[in-house]
Sequence to fold (636 residues):
Amino acid sequence: MEKPYVLGLDMGGTNSVLGIVDVRGHVIARTSIKTQQYPDINDYINALYEEAVKIVEPIGGFSLFRGIGAGVPNGNYYTGRIEGAMNLPWPSVPFAELMTERFGIPCKITNDANAAAQGEMTYGAAKGMKDFIMITLGTGVGSGIVIDGKVVYGHDGFAGELGHTTAVRGPEGRQCNCGKKGCLEAYASATGVARTAKEIISSTTKETILRNLDIDNITSKDVFDAAEQGDEVAKQIFDYTGTILGQQIADFIAFSAPEAIIMFGGLTKSGHWILDPVVKAINDNVLPLWRNKVKVLFSDLKEADAAVLGASSLAWEE
Amino acid sequence: MEKPYVLGLDMGGTNSVLGIVDVRGHVIARTSIKTQQYPDINDYINALYEEAVKIVEPIGGFSLFRGIGAGVPNGNYYTGRIEGAMNLPWPSVPFAELMTERFGIPCKITNDANAAAQGEMTYGAAKGMKDFIMITLGTGVGSGIVIDGKVVYGHDGFAGELGHTTAVRGPEGRQCNCGKKGCLEAYASATGVARTAKEIISSTTKETILRNLDIDNITSKDVFDAAEQGDEVAKQIFDYTGTILGQQIADFIAFSAPEAIIMFGGLTKSGHWILDPVVKAINDNVLPLWRNKVKVLFSDLKEADAAVLGASSLAWEE
Fold:
């Protein structure tokens, strides 16, 4: 192959990781910069380019690269623009165009969850699957939907906002960052779990080791550690979170009848504590024909690599 | 063109309508039989064949036909089987295979809502659209989802069961025929509207002309007539129904970011009385980026033709 490499960029609100990926799907070199350090988008791209040169030159230069694929917050596949990404210094910019100009090779972008879904399909737990839904459980709740072997972008490029489907209707629904109430993201994200922990701990008199922690900064890791020690309140926190997540997933299954649901991100480190209530709630809420039929899996890609690999796979497209 | 015709079959629980469709999408002849009159599937297919001969022979015989496309309750596109259709005399049969044998031309099947979506895309309100969701509001609530120009079948062929997403959570959710509670179908179907009418009329002391009717048999037509005369309770029934429907549609939009939602079936005859609360609830429940962006349309195909045309379009496929 004439051009055996691509670059994959995983842009997060904190770090931007750039990796060189070969045709076998190995990340053979990587580098990173701090996303927030560049108030001007041109400075960000220049810094990224300078870092890229350091890893690209040793293997033969940009002429061996087919392109760049980037997973970026609020990245739009169709327009190549970042649009309304409030966690970035430049919420709305023509990112793909600027990258293509500076790097001299074509850049395609998508949002981070779609990139992760691409990565799963090409290299991960969804290898060989044509229909699956990826749910990313991190600071927010994102999703990448694959139907008939292709990531769903929708009419405007913004398909797959499953974190903003309504999990709890009515006034008791939690306020979400998006302005709506009761969104799945307000329950199944890291901050959602922290909030559930706080609510459950405050409303019970049960003994729990979680009470020894700073109640405003409880993480899913803390809850996991407690559950592992047999803490009933910790289990209750996972049950509550998993039930809400599974109920929503049941509706997603009614939509696209996927072969599998693949979960990715921090919350999955809680293993069966979160998986069991998710699976139960799915089976309690799907039509009989899907009961115990849809696989529920955790991503098996290393978290750091999944997004880089997924983003990079965009660059192999025609 | 060597074979300029196809047959389209719209099988309902009551009537089975068979039409001859030409390449321009005109239904040039049609016939029908009573679905329930044949306890044996072979007798049903023989009767259908005999009827077909009467309209096919005059235009030159089956050799001019490319195939048959059929929209049938619980029809599975992949397997060609009807599976678990409780409203048919033969809930589970290898329908496409039996039809192909008897008619001597290939038969493909799908479910009725998917057939309607195909019809809309090829001949109706969704002409030229690549991403839309069709919601059929009839005895039940069905859906056909089109993404990137193709009907979504999912991993098992059963995608698009949006009538069985959960509209009302918890014990107060209405019992649905599927065994679950709170399904959209229990609110937005004909029986759902009847039930809402009964509940609202019983729980109010307001004057309403609907009180003069048999409370167990109120139809959406009755409610429409009342609303047209300024009846406040009738309006309340549409508001309740439309709000629940619109809330669910908002979540569907977050899934596939469609260009349009197309509604089809009896309830759409209520016009703006149902449309207005649907649109309001969508806008109240989608992310800001979709507010007032997604078209909400009624099907403009004649109800009788939509399913025949949609089903027939399967027969043009390779």
Notes: The CA atoms of residues 246 and 279 of chain B lie 6 Å apart.
